[in-house]
Amino acid sequence: MNPDLIIRNATLPDGRTGQDIAVSDGKIAEIRPAIEEKGAREIEVLGQLVSPPFVDVHFHMDATLSLGIPRLNRSGTLLEGIALWGELKPILTAEAVVERALRYCDLAVSRGLLAIRSHVDVCDDRLTGVEALLEVKKRVAPYLDLQLVAFPQDGFYRSPTAEKNLIRALDMGVDVVGGIPHFERTMADGAASVRALCEIAEKRGLLVDMHCDETDDPMSRHIETLAYETQRLGLQGRVTGSHLTSMHSMDNYYVSKLLPLIAEAGVHAVANPLINIQIQGRHDTYPKRRGMTRVPELRAHGVNVAFGHDCVMDPWYSLGSGDMLDVAHMAIHVAQMTSREAMKFCFDAVTASSAKIMGLEGYGLEPGCNADMVVLQATDPIEAIRLKANRLFVIRRGKVIAETPAVETRLTLDGRPGLVNGAAYGPMEAN
């Protein structure tokens, strides 16, 4: 039988050019130049980049698109954001959360973002957000993978019903165990929460993803405890430390000890460049700390590092567009990762590296993988980040689910070209 879809003349993230991608029954059947068969549908991409879909491994979908309800975060700090979220929670309804989350998923799909790990607050005895996002997960399953983290926003021990509610959320079908040790009342309580939450995950066979050390305090060192508990309980490869911004402020000697511990434990790291650069360093005058964790150093030690969007128009962040290329673009600037190799890594950090953390089955561009792809108006991953490239086609299981015309600008200048295509302005030599 002829393939259901063939994408012709694609450039792949690994640098291969002139590739045809044949799709049958929702899977990639073949990738090679000049496939002879005819597809039921064919898309000629003229050398444009075809990538696996974008993955956001750290997000808060229960709060998204709630900007201004009931008020704005005037200080821009993490703590005011948490306080504001506490004001919003009592007036949340499941219907409103579902509506906002579905609208955000529409936006995500248009951006080629087809997998999201969302933390959902369990410090609400009604579990409104949990109920709502479990419903959203079912409704978006045909076109988006949504993984949920039981997140005790107000502290596993600090909030009196958080432990009970977290267990309830897991029993309802939430996928991952979360935590926020730096928000407990004491450092000792924070370390104890890491231990208890990892034990819950180990007993249930679940993944762990903790907001860990999201602070400018260099003495917030719960990532050390998380790495230890990961090894003690045999959770290697199943645990993620998100944010890790205190590492930005730690002294270099301690970090030289810490990085090998994280790598040895197989703990993943997630930085959230847009949020970290905006929230951290708020108490500084000048010089101001950037706040993002030490991404190049983590990489150098073999730690799997990915990037998350974290927030879009909510109590913590009034901007955001669901664009993971915007996230990668910020990371390049914040961490000064401007070598070509490092910029390619930043593309991986919003695609393959994040997919590894989520444990997505069938992800990638190889025969046998799910036919989930994004065609970008760019010729390689670096250009895609530089341009925050237009998504020409978004494909899920071999079906086009979003399509955007190529962006060109018409000029009326004497003696100059009539059309300008930004994707044609790449470097003459990209090696």
Automatic annotation (TrEMBL):
Gene3D superfamilies: Metal-dependent hydrolases (3.20.20.140), Urease, subunit C, domain 1 (2.30.40.10). InterPro entries: Amidohydro_3, Metal-dep_hydrolase_composite, Metal_Hydrolase, Metallo-hydrolase_Enzymes. Pfam families: Amidohydro_3. Residues 47-399 form the Amidohydrolase domain. Coiled coil: none annotated. It comes from the Bacteria. This is Amidohydrolase family protein. It comes from Flaviflagellibacter deserti.
